[in-house]
Amino acid sequence: MNIVFDIGNVLIAWDPHAAFRHAFDSEAEIDAFLREADFYAWNLEQDRGRSREAAVAAAGAGHAALLDGYFDRFHLTIQYKICETWSLMERLRSRGTASMA
Question: Taking the complete model, does pTM exceed 0.85, yes or no?
Answer without folding.
Answer: no
